[in-house]
Amino acid sequence: MELTFDLGRQILQQQAFSRLLGAELTRLERDCTELQLALRPELLQQNGFVHGGVLCYLADNALTYAGGLALGTRVVTAEFKINYVRPALGSLVVARAAVVHAGKRQAVCRCDVFVDADGGERLVATALGTIAVAGTKSAA
Amino acid sequence: MELTFDLGRQILQQQAFSRLLGAELTRLERDCTELQLALRPELLQQNGFVHGGVLCYLADNALTYAGGLALGTRVVTAEFKINYVRPALGSLVVARAAVVHAGKRQAVCRCDVFVDADGGERLVATALGTIAVAGTKSAA
Amino acid sequence: MELTFDLGRQILQQQAFSRLLGAELTRLERDCTELQLALRPELLQQNGFVHGGVLCYLADNALTYAGGLALGTRVVTAEFKINYVRPALGSLVVARAAVVHAGKRQAVCRCDVFVDADGGERLVATALGTIAVAGTKSAA
Amino acid sequence: MELTFDLGRQILQQQAFSRLLGAELTRLERDCTELQLALRPELLQQNGFVHGGVLCYLADNALTYAGGLALGTRVVTAEFKINYVRPALGSLVVARAAVVHAGKRQAVCRCDVFVDADGGERLVATALGTIAVAGTKSAA
Predict the structure, then answer these.
(1) Best residue in C11, C75, C84, C122 to probe D by mutation, most D CBs within 10 Å?
(2) Which ipTM did the prediction report?
(3) CA C19, C11, C18: angle at the middle one, nearest 5?
Protein backbone atom coordinates (compact mmCIF):
# COMPACT_ATOMS: atom_id res chain seq x y z
CA MET A 1 0.00 0.00 0.00
CA GLU A 2 1.41 3.34 -1.00
CA LEU A 3 2.13 5.82 1.74
CA THR A 4 0.34 9.10 1.04
CA PHE A 5 0.41 12.28 3.07
CA ASP A 6 -3.13 11.68 4.36
CA LEU A 7 -2.41 8.08 5.29
CA GLY A 8 0.83 9.17 6.94
CA ARG A 9 -1.06 11.66 9.08
CA GLN A 10 -3.64 9.01 10.01
CA ILE A 11 -0.92 6.59 11.08
CA LEU A 12 0.67 9.24 13.27
CA GLN A 13 -2.71 9.89 14.90
CA GLN A 14 -3.01 6.17 15.58
CA GLN A 15 0.27 6.23 17.50
CA ALA A 16 -0.74 7.04 21.05
CA PHE A 17 2.84 7.99 21.90
CA SER A 18 3.00 10.45 18.98
CA ARG A 19 -0.27 12.02 20.19
CA LEU A 20 1.14 12.24 23.74
CA LEU A 21 4.14 14.15 22.38
CA GLY A 22 2.16 16.13 19.82
CA ALA A 23 4.11 15.33 16.65
CA GLU A 24 2.73 16.33 13.27
CA LEU A 25 3.62 15.12 9.81
CA THR A 26 4.12 18.28 7.79
CA ARG A 27 5.68 17.02 4.56
CA LEU A 28 5.97 13.70 2.79
CA GLU A 29 7.92 13.99 -0.41
CA ARG A 30 10.52 11.83 -2.05
CA ASP A 31 13.37 14.15 -1.09
CA CYS A 32 12.03 15.25 2.29
CA THR A 33 9.82 13.81 4.97
CA GLU A 34 9.18 16.30 7.73
CA LEU A 35 7.81 15.97 11.24
CA GLN A 36 7.26 18.89 13.59
CA LEU A 37 6.78 18.97 17.32
CA ALA A 38 5.74 22.06 19.28
CA LEU A 39 7.78 22.26 22.46
CA ARG A 40 6.20 22.52 25.90
CA PRO A 41 7.63 22.11 29.43
CA GLU A 42 6.76 18.38 29.57
CA LEU A 43 9.30 17.67 26.81
CA LEU A 44 12.34 19.14 28.55
CA GLN A 45 15.08 17.80 30.81
CA GLN A 46 16.47 19.20 34.05
CA ASN A 47 18.40 22.07 32.45
CA GLY A 48 15.55 23.39 30.35
CA PHE A 49 16.73 21.83 27.09
CA VAL A 50 14.64 19.49 24.97
CA HIS A 51 15.12 15.96 26.31
CA GLY A 52 17.25 13.78 24.06
CA GLY A 53 14.47 11.22 24.13
CA VAL A 54 12.21 13.69 22.30
CA LEU A 55 14.84 14.27 19.62
CA CYS A 56 15.51 10.58 19.09
CA TYR A 57 11.77 9.83 19.01
CA LEU A 58 11.31 12.45 16.29
CA ALA A 59 14.36 11.34 14.30
CA ASP A 60 13.27 7.70 14.50
CA ASN A 61 9.77 8.53 13.29
CA ALA A 62 10.96 10.78 10.47
CA LEU A 63 13.34 8.04 9.31
CA THR A 64 10.44 5.59 9.35
CA TYR A 65 8.29 7.88 7.17
CA ALA A 66 11.14 8.37 4.71
CA GLY A 67 11.60 4.61 4.50
CA GLY A 68 7.86 3.99 4.32
CA LEU A 69 7.54 6.33 1.37
CA ALA A 70 10.13 4.28 -0.52
CA LEU A 71 9.08 0.80 0.63
CA GLY A 72 5.33 1.02 1.33
CA THR A 73 3.38 1.61 4.50
CA ARG A 74 4.15 -1.41 6.67
CA VAL A 75 7.66 -0.64 7.80
CA VAL A 76 9.61 -0.53 11.02
CA THR A 77 12.84 1.08 12.08
CA ALA A 78 15.38 -1.74 12.35
CA GLU A 79 18.18 0.41 13.76
CA PHE A 80 19.49 3.94 13.78
CA LYS A 81 22.27 6.09 15.16
CA ILE A 82 21.90 9.63 16.35
CA ASN A 83 24.48 12.31 17.11
CA TYR A 84 23.32 15.17 19.30
CA VAL A 85 25.31 18.20 18.21
CA ARG A 86 24.00 21.00 20.45
CA PRO A 87 21.68 21.54 23.41
CA ALA A 88 18.20 22.07 21.95
CA LEU A 89 16.38 25.22 22.98
CA GLY A 90 13.42 26.70 21.14
CA SER A 91 9.68 26.44 20.61
CA LEU A 92 9.56 23.94 17.76
CA VAL A 93 11.53 20.83 16.75
CA VAL A 94 11.65 19.88 13.08
CA ALA A 95 13.01 16.56 11.78
CA ARG A 96 13.69 16.17 8.06
CA ALA A 97 14.56 12.79 6.62
CA ALA A 98 15.28 11.35 3.19
CA VAL A 99 16.18 8.01 1.69
CA VAL A 100 19.85 7.48 0.89
CA HIS A 101 19.26 4.11 -0.76
CA ALA A 102 16.20 1.87 -1.02
CA GLY A 103 16.09 -1.79 -1.91
CA LYS A 104 13.08 -4.06 -1.88
CA ARG A 105 13.00 -4.81 1.82
CA GLN A 106 15.13 -2.16 3.40
CA ALA A 107 15.92 1.50 3.00
CA VAL A 108 18.82 3.41 4.47
CA CYS A 109 17.71 6.90 5.46
CA ARG A 110 19.22 9.95 7.05
CA CYS A 111 17.63 12.67 9.12
CA ASP A 112 18.56 16.11 10.44
CA VAL A 113 16.81 17.56 13.48
CA PHE A 114 16.49 21.32 14.01
CA VAL A 115 15.03 23.73 16.53
CA ASP A 116 13.76 27.13 15.55
CA ALA A 117 16.07 29.79 16.96
CA ASP A 118 16.33 33.53 16.38
CA GLY A 119 13.95 33.37 13.48
CA GLY A 120 16.06 30.68 11.79
CA GLU A 121 16.80 27.02 12.30
CA ARG A 122 19.59 25.43 14.27
CA LEU A 123 20.78 21.85 13.78
CA VAL A 124 20.59 19.91 17.04
CA ALA A 125 20.97 16.30 15.94
CA THR A 126 21.61 14.11 12.92
CA ALA A 127 20.70 10.48 12.42
CA LEU A 128 21.28 7.56 10.04
CA GLY A 129 19.30 4.34 10.09
CA THR A 130 17.72 1.34 8.41
CA ILE A 131 13.99 1.02 7.77
CA ALA A 132 12.73 -2.49 7.03
CA VAL A 133 9.51 -3.87 5.60
CA ALA A 134 7.61 -5.17 8.64
CA GLY A 135 8.13 -8.86 9.21
CA THR A 136 11.49 -9.03 7.43
CA LYS A 137 13.80 -7.79 10.13
CA SER A 138 15.24 -9.93 12.84
CA ALA A 139 11.96 -10.38 14.73
CA ALA A 140 11.53 -14.10 15.39
CA MET B 1 30.04 15.66 41.92
CA GLU B 2 29.60 11.96 42.42
CA LEU B 3 26.43 10.39 41.11
CA THR B 4 24.64 8.51 43.88
CA PHE B 5 21.42 6.53 43.66
CA ASP B 6 19.47 9.25 45.50
CA LEU B 7 20.91 12.03 43.35
CA GLY B 8 20.19 9.95 40.25
CA ARG B 9 16.57 9.61 41.27
CA GLN B 10 16.33 13.35 41.96
CA ILE B 11 17.73 14.18 38.53
CA LEU B 12 15.21 11.89 36.87
CA GLN B 13 12.40 13.63 38.77
CA GLN B 14 13.74 16.96 37.52
CA GLN B 15 13.37 15.77 33.92
CA ALA B 16 9.83 16.71 32.97
CA PHE B 17 9.94 14.33 30.02
CA SER B 18 10.96 11.42 32.25
CA ARG B 19 8.06 12.22 34.57
CA LEU B 20 5.70 12.38 31.58
CA LEU B 21 6.81 8.88 30.58
CA GLY B 22 7.04 7.57 34.13
CA ALA B 23 10.61 6.24 34.14
CA GLU B 24 12.20 5.15 37.40
CA LEU B 25 15.84 4.63 38.27
CA THR B 26 15.92 1.24 39.96
CA ARG B 27 19.62 0.46 40.16
CA LEU B 28 22.86 2.42 39.91
CA GLU B 29 25.87 0.20 40.29
CA ARG B 30 29.20 0.07 38.56
CA ASP B 31 28.25 -2.98 36.51
CA CYS B 32 24.58 -2.15 35.97
CA THR B 33 22.47 0.97 35.77
CA GLU B 34 18.80 0.14 35.47
CA LEU B 35 15.77 2.18 34.49
CA GLN B 36 12.23 0.84 34.48
CA LEU B 37 9.12 2.14 32.80
CA ALA B 38 5.63 0.82 33.44
CA LEU B 39 3.77 0.55 30.16
CA ARG B 40 0.41 2.18 29.54
CA PRO B 41 -1.59 2.83 26.37
CA GLU B 42 -0.06 6.30 25.82
CA LEU B 43 3.34 4.72 25.18
CA LEU B 44 2.30 2.47 22.30
CA GLN B 45 2.23 2.79 18.52
CA GLN B 46 -0.53 1.91 16.05
CA ASN B 47 -0.13 -1.88 16.32
CA GLY B 48 -0.18 -2.05 20.08
CA PHE B 49 3.59 -2.41 20.52
CA VAL B 50 5.71 -0.08 22.60
CA HIS B 51 6.69 2.87 20.44
CA GLY B 52 10.33 2.81 19.38
CA GLY B 53 10.63 6.33 20.72
CA VAL B 54 9.96 5.01 24.23
CA LEU B 55 12.66 2.38 23.86
CA CYS B 56 15.24 4.80 22.53
CA TYR B 57 14.37 7.32 25.25
CA LEU B 58 14.95 4.66 27.90
CA ALA B 59 18.15 3.36 26.31
CA ASP B 60 19.51 6.89 25.95
CA ASN B 61 18.78 7.70 29.59
CA ALA B 62 20.21 4.43 30.91
CA LEU B 63 23.38 5.03 28.88
CA THR B 64 23.62 8.51 30.39
CA TYR B 65 23.34 7.16 33.94
CA ALA B 66 25.99 4.53 33.25
CA GLY B 67 28.28 7.23 31.88
CA GLY B 68 27.42 9.61 34.71
CA LEU B 69 28.36 7.03 37.29
CA ALA B 70 31.83 6.79 35.71
CA LEU B 71 32.34 10.44 34.84
CA GLY B 72 30.33 12.44 37.39
CA THR B 73 26.85 13.94 37.33
CA ARG B 74 27.10 16.61 34.64
CA VAL B 75 27.09 14.47 31.53
CA VAL B 76 25.22 14.33 28.24
CA THR B 77 24.71 11.66 25.62
CA ALA B 78 26.88 12.66 22.69
CA GLU B 79 25.64 9.91 20.37
CA PHE B 80 24.24 6.41 20.39
CA LYS B 81 23.03 3.66 18.13
CA ILE B 82 20.11 1.39 18.83
CA ASN B 83 19.03 -1.88 17.20
CA TYR B 84 15.42 -2.89 17.73
CA VAL B 85 15.38 -6.67 17.70
CA ARG B 86 11.72 -7.54 18.33
CA PRO B 87 8.32 -5.90 18.65
CA ALA B 88 7.95 -4.92 22.31
CA LEU B 89 4.86 -6.16 24.09
CA GLY B 90 4.49 -6.34 27.88
CA SER B 91 3.69 -4.31 30.96
CA LEU B 92 7.17 -3.13 31.89
CA VAL B 93 10.28 -1.99 29.99
CA VAL B 94 13.65 -2.39 31.66
CA ALA B 95 16.89 -0.86 30.34
CA ARG B 96 20.21 -2.01 31.75
CA ALA B 97 23.41 -0.21 30.87
CA ALA B 98 27.06 -0.46 31.78
CA VAL B 99 30.29 1.28 30.90
CA VAL B 100 32.49 -0.44 28.35
CA HIS B 101 35.32 2.04 28.71
CA ALA B 102 35.62 5.34 30.56
CA GLY B 103 38.20 8.04 30.05
CA LYS B 104 38.31 11.45 31.69
CA ARG B 105 35.83 13.21 29.48
CA GLN B 106 33.94 10.44 27.72
CA ALA B 107 32.61 7.00 28.44
CA VAL B 108 31.49 4.39 25.93
CA CYS B 109 28.50 2.50 27.31
CA ARG B 110 26.20 -0.26 26.16
CA CYS B 111 22.61 -0.97 27.06
CA ASP B 112 20.12 -3.80 26.64
CA VAL B 113 16.38 -3.14 26.75
CA PHE B 114 13.89 -5.80 27.83
CA VAL B 115 10.16 -6.20 28.27
CA ASP B 116 8.71 -8.52 30.84
CA ALA B 117 7.03 -11.43 29.07
CA ASP B 118 5.56 -14.71 30.33
CA GLY B 119 7.09 -14.21 33.74
CA GLY B 120 10.56 -13.70 32.25
CA GLU B 121 12.34 -11.02 30.25
CA ARG B 122 12.62 -10.61 26.53
CA LEU B 123 15.31 -8.54 24.81
CA VAL B 124 13.73 -5.92 22.54
CA ALA B 125 16.62 -3.58 21.78
CA THR B 126 20.32 -3.07 22.28
CA ALA B 127 22.30 0.15 22.18
CA LEU B 128 25.87 1.47 22.19
CA GLY B 129 26.82 5.09 22.74
CA THR B 130 29.13 7.80 23.98
CA ILE B 131 28.48 9.83 27.12
CA ALA B 132 30.45 13.06 27.46
CA VAL B 133 31.14 15.42 30.34
CA ALA B 134 28.80 18.37 29.73
CA GLY B 135 30.48 21.21 27.90
CA THR B 136 33.15 19.07 26.25
CA LYS B 137 31.24 17.65 23.33
CA SER B 138 30.77 19.40 20.03
CA ALA B 139 28.31 22.01 21.35
CA ALA B 140 29.52 25.39 20.17
CA MET C 1 24.81 -24.45 4.77
CA GLU C 2 26.06 -24.60 8.31
CA LEU C 3 29.13 -22.57 9.13
CA THR C 4 31.80 -24.77 10.66
CA PHE C 5 35.22 -23.77 11.91
CA ASP C 6 36.93 -25.38 8.88
CA LEU C 7 34.57 -23.74 6.42
CA GLY C 8 35.01 -20.44 8.23
CA ARG C 9 38.76 -20.68 7.84
CA GLN C 10 38.40 -21.55 4.15
CA ILE C 11 36.18 -18.53 3.54
CA LEU C 12 38.71 -16.27 5.22
CA GLN C 13 41.43 -17.69 2.98
CA GLN C 14 39.24 -16.93 -0.04
CA GLN C 15 39.09 -13.27 0.97
CA ALA C 16 42.08 -11.71 -0.70
CA PHE C 17 41.85 -8.69 1.57
CA SER C 18 41.91 -10.87 4.69
CA ARG C 19 45.02 -12.62 3.34
CA LEU C 20 46.62 -9.24 2.62
CA LEU C 21 46.05 -8.24 6.25
CA GLY C 22 46.82 -11.67 7.67
CA ALA C 23 43.67 -12.32 9.72
CA GLU C 24 43.03 -15.74 11.20
CA LEU C 25 39.84 -17.29 12.48
CA THR C 26 40.79 -18.73 15.87
CA ARG C 27 37.43 -19.62 17.40
CA LEU C 28 33.90 -20.14 16.15
CA GLU C 29 31.52 -20.94 18.95
CA ARG C 30 27.99 -19.89 19.74
CA ASP C 31 29.09 -17.49 22.46
CA CYS C 32 32.32 -16.32 20.88
CA THR C 33 33.69 -15.90 17.39
CA GLU C 34 37.31 -14.82 17.42
CA LEU C 35 39.61 -13.39 14.77
CA GLN C 36 43.28 -12.59 15.34
CA LEU C 37 45.64 -10.43 13.39
CA ALA C 38 49.38 -10.27 13.97
CA LEU C 39 50.53 -6.69 13.77
CA ARG C 40 53.29 -5.51 11.47
CA PRO C 41 54.43 -2.06 10.32
CA GLU C 42 52.15 -2.08 7.24
CA LEU C 43 49.07 -2.00 9.49
CA LEU C 44 49.91 1.17 11.39
CA GLN C 45 49.14 4.86 10.98
CA GLN C 46 51.44 7.88 11.21
CA ASN C 47 51.84 7.79 15.00
CA GLY C 48 52.72 4.13 15.23
CA PHE C 49 49.28 2.98 16.38
CA VAL C 50 47.21 0.36 14.60
CA HIS C 51 45.24 2.11 11.87
CA GLY C 52 41.54 2.42 12.66
CA GLY C 53 40.84 0.80 9.31
CA VAL C 54 42.48 -2.39 10.54
CA LEU C 55 40.35 -2.41 13.68
CA CYS C 56 37.11 -1.77 11.82
CA TYR C 57 38.01 -4.43 9.23
CA LEU C 58 38.54 -6.97 12.02
CA ALA C 59 35.39 -5.96 13.93
CA ASP C 60 33.32 -6.12 10.73
CA ASN C 61 34.61 -9.58 9.88
CA ALA C 62 34.17 -10.93 13.41
CA LEU C 63 30.58 -9.63 13.44
CA THR C 64 29.98 -11.37 10.12
CA TYR C 65 31.25 -14.69 11.47
CA ALA C 66 29.08 -14.39 14.58
CA GLY C 67 26.06 -13.68 12.40
CA GLY C 68 27.01 -16.41 9.94
CA LEU C 69 27.16 -18.98 12.72
CA ALA C 70 23.57 -18.10 13.68
CA LEU C 71 22.13 -17.59 10.19
CA GLY C 72 24.17 -19.83 7.87
CA THR C 73 27.18 -19.19 5.70
CA ARG C 74 25.90 -16.77 3.07
CA VAL C 75 25.70 -13.58 5.06
CA VAL C 76 26.84 -9.99 4.72
CA THR C 77 27.32 -7.15 7.15
CA ALA C 78 24.44 -4.75 6.55
CA GLU C 79 25.68 -2.08 8.94
CA PHE C 80 27.73 -1.58 12.05
CA LYS C 81 28.96 1.06 14.44
CA ILE C 82 32.34 1.11 16.07
CA ASN C 83 33.68 3.13 18.99
CA TYR C 84 37.45 3.38 19.26
CA VAL C 85 38.24 3.67 22.94
CA ARG C 86 42.05 3.84 23.05
CA PRO C 87 45.04 4.10 20.73
CA ALA C 88 45.97 0.53 19.79
CA LEU C 89 49.54 -0.51 20.41
CA GLY C 90 50.72 -4.12 20.58
CA SER C 91 51.73 -7.11 18.53
CA LEU C 92 48.34 -8.79 18.11
CA VAL C 93 44.76 -7.63 17.59
CA VAL C 94 41.95 -9.90 18.73
CA ALA C 95 38.29 -9.36 17.88
CA ARG C 96 35.61 -11.33 19.74
CA ALA C 97 32.02 -11.22 18.61
CA ALA C 98 28.74 -12.82 19.66
CA VAL C 99 25.12 -12.73 18.59
CA VAL C 100 22.83 -10.54 20.68
CA HIS C 101 19.68 -11.63 18.84
CA ALA C 102 19.14 -13.71 15.72
CA GLY C 103 16.00 -13.91 13.61
CA LYS C 104 15.58 -15.75 10.32
CA ARG C 105 17.16 -13.20 8.05
CA GLN C 106 19.15 -10.95 10.32
CA ALA C 107 21.26 -11.16 13.43
CA VAL C 108 22.33 -8.32 15.68
CA CYS C 109 25.86 -8.93 16.94
CA ARG C 110 28.37 -7.17 19.12
CA CYS C 111 32.14 -7.28 19.09
CA ASP C 112 34.99 -6.19 21.34
CA VAL C 113 38.46 -5.59 19.91
CA PHE C 114 41.59 -5.98 22.03
CA VAL C 115 45.34 -5.65 21.65
CA ASP C 116 47.74 -7.70 23.69
CA ALA C 117 49.56 -5.45 26.14
CA ASP C 118 51.85 -6.16 29.07
CA GLY C 119 51.01 -9.82 28.99
CA GLY C 120 47.28 -9.08 29.16
CA GLU C 121 44.63 -7.69 26.86
CA ARG C 122 43.51 -4.13 26.43
CA LEU C 123 40.16 -3.12 24.92
CA VAL C 124 40.69 -0.78 21.97
CA ALA C 125 37.29 -0.75 20.26
CA THR C 126 33.75 -2.02 20.56
CA ALA C 127 31.19 -2.52 17.81
CA LEU C 128 27.51 -3.33 17.27
CA GLY C 129 26.00 -4.30 13.95
CA THR C 130 23.51 -6.15 11.81
CA ILE C 131 24.38 -9.23 9.76
CA ALA C 132 21.91 -10.17 7.03
CA VAL C 133 21.39 -13.28 4.95
CA ALA C 134 22.92 -12.43 1.55
CA GLY C 135 20.36 -11.13 -0.91
CA THR C 136 17.90 -9.89 1.70
CA LYS C 137 19.42 -6.58 2.60
CA SER C 138 18.87 -3.41 0.69
CA ALA C 139 20.95 -4.41 -2.32
CA ALA C 140 18.87 -3.75 -5.43
CA MET D 1 47.96 23.56 12.79
CA GLU D 2 45.76 24.07 9.79
CA LEU D 3 45.15 21.09 7.58
CA THR D 4 46.07 21.90 4.00
CA PHE D 5 45.78 19.70 0.94
CA ASP D 6 49.57 19.16 0.82
CA LEU D 7 49.79 18.36 4.52
CA GLY D 8 46.81 16.04 4.17
CA ARG D 9 48.57 14.15 1.40
CA GLN D 10 51.76 13.92 3.45
CA ILE D 11 49.85 12.50 6.43
CA LEU D 12 48.26 9.87 4.22
CA GLN D 13 51.71 8.92 2.92
CA GLN D 14 52.86 8.55 6.53
CA GLN D 15 50.11 6.02 7.18
CA ALA D 16 51.66 2.69 6.26
CA PHE D 17 48.22 1.10 6.09
CA SER D 18 46.98 3.74 3.65
CA ARG D 19 50.04 3.11 1.46
CA LEU D 20 49.38 -0.64 1.63
CA LEU D 21 45.86 -0.05 0.36
CA GLY D 22 46.82 2.71 -2.06
CA ALA D 23 44.46 5.47 -0.95
CA GLU D 24 44.88 8.99 -2.30
CA LEU D 25 43.57 12.28 -1.01
CA THR D 26 42.04 13.95 -4.06
CA ARG D 27 40.14 16.87 -2.57
CA LEU D 28 40.13 18.77 0.69
CA GLU D 29 37.54 21.50 0.74
CA ARG D 30 35.16 22.75 3.35
CA ASP D 31 32.16 21.08 1.73
CA CYS D 32 33.90 17.97 0.43
CA THR D 33 36.87 15.87 1.44
CA GLU D 34 37.56 13.13 -1.06
CA LEU D 35 39.67 9.99 -0.93
CA GLN D 36 40.12 7.61 -3.84
CA LEU D 37 41.32 4.05 -3.95
CA ALA D 38 42.10 2.14 -7.13
CA LEU D 39 40.79 -1.39 -6.83
CA ARG D 40 42.93 -4.45 -7.33
CA PRO D 41 42.41 -8.14 -6.53
CA GLU D 42 43.99 -7.86 -3.06
CA LEU D 43 41.14 -5.64 -1.91
CA LEU D 44 38.30 -8.05 -2.67
CA GLN D 45 36.41 -10.69 -0.72
CA GLN D 46 35.47 -14.24 -1.73
CA ASN D 47 32.71 -13.25 -4.18
CA GLY D 48 34.75 -10.72 -6.09
CA PHE D 49 33.25 -7.66 -4.41
CA VAL D 50 35.28 -5.02 -2.61
CA HIS D 51 35.79 -6.18 0.97
CA GLY D 52 33.70 -4.28 3.50
CA GLY D 53 36.90 -3.62 5.41
CA VAL D 54 38.19 -1.55 2.49
CA LEU D 55 35.02 0.51 2.40
CA CYS D 56 34.98 1.15 6.14
CA TYR D 57 38.69 2.02 6.07
CA LEU D 58 38.06 4.61 3.35
CA ALA D 59 34.94 6.01 5.03
CA ASP D 60 36.75 6.26 8.37
CA ASN D 61 39.69 8.09 6.80
CA ALA D 62 37.51 10.46 4.78
CA LEU D 63 35.53 11.30 7.92
CA THR D 64 38.82 12.02 9.72
CA TYR D 65 39.96 14.40 6.98
CA ALA D 66 36.63 16.22 7.03
CA GLY D 67 36.89 16.59 10.80
CA GLY D 68 40.56 17.53 10.61
CA LEU D 69 39.79 20.34 8.19
CA ALA D 70 37.34 21.80 10.70
CA LEU D 71 39.25 21.09 13.90
CA GLY D 72 42.95 21.13 12.94
CA THR D 73 45.37 18.39 12.01
CA ARG D 74 45.68 16.34 15.20
CA VAL D 75 42.39 14.50 15.19
CA VAL D 76 41.17 10.94 15.57
CA THR D 77 37.96 9.16 14.70
CA ALA D 78 36.16 8.59 17.98
CA GLU D 79 33.34 6.50 16.50
CA PHE D 80 31.39 5.99 13.32
CA LYS D 81 28.60 3.96 11.85
CA ILE D 82 28.49 2.62 8.31
CA ASN D 83 25.64 1.19 6.26
CA TYR D 84 26.65 -0.91 3.27
CA VAL D 85 23.90 -0.45 0.70
CA ARG D 86 25.08 -2.54 -2.25
CA PRO D 87 27.79 -5.01 -3.19
CA ALA D 88 30.72 -2.93 -4.47
CA LEU D 89 32.06 -3.79 -7.91
CA GLY D 90 34.23 -1.49 -9.98
CA SER D 91 37.75 -0.24 -10.53
CA LEU D 92 37.76 2.73 -8.19
CA VAL D 93 36.27 3.53 -4.77
CA VAL D 94 35.61 7.17 -3.90
CA ALA D 95 34.67 8.40 -0.43
CA ARG D 96 33.34 11.93 0.03
CA ALA D 97 32.87 13.38 3.47
CA ALA D 98 31.76 16.68 4.95
CA VAL D 99 31.25 18.19 8.36
CA VAL D 100 27.67 18.28 9.63
CA HIS D 101 28.56 20.22 12.76
CA ALA D 102 31.88 21.24 14.30
CA GLY D 103 32.51 22.40 17.84
CA LYS D 104 35.86 23.11 19.45
CA ARG D 105 36.85 19.56 20.27
CA GLN D 106 34.61 17.40 18.14
CA ALA D 107 33.06 17.40 14.70
CA VAL D 108 30.20 15.26 13.47
CA CYS D 109 30.80 14.28 9.85
CA ARG D 110 29.07 12.22 7.21
CA CYS D 111 30.49 10.33 4.27
CA ASP D 112 29.17 8.63 1.14
CA VAL D 113 31.20 5.92 -0.58
CA PHE D 114 30.87 5.22 -4.29
CA VAL D 115 32.30 2.89 -6.88
CA ASP D 116 32.65 3.87 -10.49
CA ALA D 117 30.20 1.88 -12.59
CA ASP D 118 29.12 2.12 -16.20
CA GLY D 119 30.83 5.44 -16.61
CA GLY D 120 29.00 6.86 -13.60
CA GLU D 121 29.10 6.44 -9.84
CA ARG D 122 27.16 4.07 -7.66
CA LEU D 123 26.62 4.57 -3.94
CA VAL D 124 27.85 1.53 -1.99
CA ALA D 125 27.96 2.77 1.60
CA THR D 126 27.16 5.73 3.79
CA ALA D 127 28.64 6.65 7.14
CA LEU D 128 28.18 9.05 10.06
CA GLY D 129 30.73 9.61 12.80
CA THR D 130 32.48 11.76 15.35
CA ILE D 131 35.99 13.14 14.90
CA ALA D 132 37.74 14.36 18.05
CA VAL D 133 40.79 16.48 18.68
CA ALA D 134 43.51 13.97 19.64
CA GLY D 135 43.85 13.56 23.37
CA THR D 136 40.31 14.62 24.20
CA LYS D 137 38.43 11.45 23.53
CA SER D 138 38.06 8.63 26.00
CA ALA D 139 41.67 7.45 25.75
CA ALA D 140 43.00 7.02 29.26
Answers:
(1) C84
(2) 0.95
(3) 20
